[in-house]
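Task: sequence design from structure.
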């Protein structure tokens, strides 16, 4: 890992598309946190300042709290000078209450900005809280803030002394570093639930002192919040090999296609041809018409539809493209789709792994994004961006209502897409039910039709 470069919060930092579109993410495994906590049920999160716990792992902490896990957050400082009851300490207590009533807190009120002078004391106090059945989350050793880096050194020493499991979390690393600076082999990802992601967003809103400033450049600026609002969270294995090997094998595989397809196949097990009522429900017919209306060009060479279900939209797209390719995880749904038309190339597969290695000048994800978890979504968006032609469009269309029993909702999907895509927003339509966004180079249908410059 590269040594941290100087930075301030006033810098814009490395932007989200640069981070999230990097192909190295394709190699990053998921962390099997459940396997780790099964043998180490005590969880200690070490936060140098109030907000570090939420910025880094707020959604995961909310999920752990909801599961009844034994979680303690240690705030080493209260984030400022003066008496203990600073605004940030009050904000920290509020944030933890939002993340979950099961989370215990300890406030040590050490001097802000001076933790590097307290190494022995920090190591001793942390060692007194942990043992071999504890998972310790602490900042990464090169996060770039003096307090974060000092906390990392003390946590590493304490974890080694007490045979605890150590995992590092990045915050400012995302700000000063670039993808070339990262040891990607150390990264592991987590896919929190939608309630966890929502709790994290609400907890961050508690830190008003960090979200506001007289000069318009708050500590938690838009770039920091974009990173904090990802639909996934990230930890790093410790740099020290003896500590890394304690968690290196805790890898979770993604969902198999059969698992993704099961609930959709079950809806069709009785022979139902249109369980989603795409043919006769006014909302669904209108959604398909709006997607077609939002396409920027009259004609395309190649269109890909991701999550085509029983093929209604794909069939309509054949009137707008020379070639239409459609993919869905449900073989039963595709059996119906194949009976609709033989002019579409149908692919049975799960995204992102089974996406065809081809390029397209329009890629449509309509009411599919929220059936993916945060890691599947970002991986799919990264893949389709990679497969888009130079003047192509990515179209996202999702219901705006609340979801239940699925990983995400429309708001989360579209917010993540907006942060990840390095394309201009060409068009956006919203109503009480639906949001449709088209990402790609702005085009004028009028000028193309008239042949004007």
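Answer:
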């Amino acid at each position: 890992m590269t040594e941290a470069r100087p930075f301030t919060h006033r810098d814009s930092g490395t932007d989200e598309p640069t981070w999230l579109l990097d192909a190295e993410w394709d190699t990053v495994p998921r962390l099997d946190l459940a396997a780790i906590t099964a043998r180490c049920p005590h969880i200690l999160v070490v936060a140098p300042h109030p907000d570090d716990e939420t910025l880094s792992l707020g959604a995961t902490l909310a999920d752990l709290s909801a599961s009844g896990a034994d979680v303690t957050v240690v705030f080493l400082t209260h984030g400022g000078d003066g008496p203990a009851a600073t605004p940030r300490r009050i904000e920290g207590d509020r944030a933890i209450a939002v993340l979950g009533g099961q989370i215990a807190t300890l406030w040590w009120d050490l001097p802000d900005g001076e933790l590097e002078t307290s190494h022995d004391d920090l190591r001793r106090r942390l060692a007194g809280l942990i043992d071999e059945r504890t998972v310790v989350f602490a900042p990464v050793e090169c996060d770039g803030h003096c307090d974060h880096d000092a906390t990392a050194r003390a946590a590493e020493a304490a974890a080694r002394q007490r045979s605890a499991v150590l995992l590092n979390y990045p915050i400012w690393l995302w700000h000063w570093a670039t993808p070339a600076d990262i040891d990607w082999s150390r990264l592991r990802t987590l896919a929190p639930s939608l309630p966890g992601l929502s709790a994290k967003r609400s907890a961050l809103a508690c830190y008003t002192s960090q979200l506001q400033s007289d000069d318009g450049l708050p500590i938690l600026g838009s770039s920091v919040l974009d990173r904090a609002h990802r639909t996934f969270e990230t930890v790093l294995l410790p740099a020290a090999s003896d500590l890394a090997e304690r968690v290196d094998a805790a890898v979770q595989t993604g969902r198999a296609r059969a698992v993704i397809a099961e609930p959709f196949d079950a809806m069709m097990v009785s022979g139902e041809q249109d369980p989603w009522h795409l043919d006769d429900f006014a909302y669904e017919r209108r959604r398909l018409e709006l997607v077609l209306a939002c396409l920027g060009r009259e004609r395309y060479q190649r269109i890909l539809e991701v999550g085509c279900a029983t093929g209604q939209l794909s069939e309509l797209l054949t009137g707008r493209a020379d070639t239409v390719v459609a993919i869905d995880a449900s073989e039963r749904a595709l059996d119906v789709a194949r009976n609709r038309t033989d002019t579409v190339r149908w692919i049975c597969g799960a995204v992102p792994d089974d996406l065809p290695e081809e390029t397209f000048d329009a890629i449509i994800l309509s009411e599919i994004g929220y059936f993916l978890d945060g890691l599947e979504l970002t991986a799919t968006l990264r893949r389709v961006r990679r497969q888009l032609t130079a003047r192509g469009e990515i179209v996202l269309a999702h219901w705006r209502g609340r979801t239940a029993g699925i990983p995400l909702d429309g708001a989360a999907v579209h917010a993540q897409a907006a942060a990840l895509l390095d394309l201009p927003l060409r068009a956006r339509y919203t109503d009480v039910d639906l949001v449709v966004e088209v990402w790609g180079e702005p085009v004028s249908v009028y000028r193309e039709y008239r042949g004007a410059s």
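The chain has a mean pLDDT of 94.
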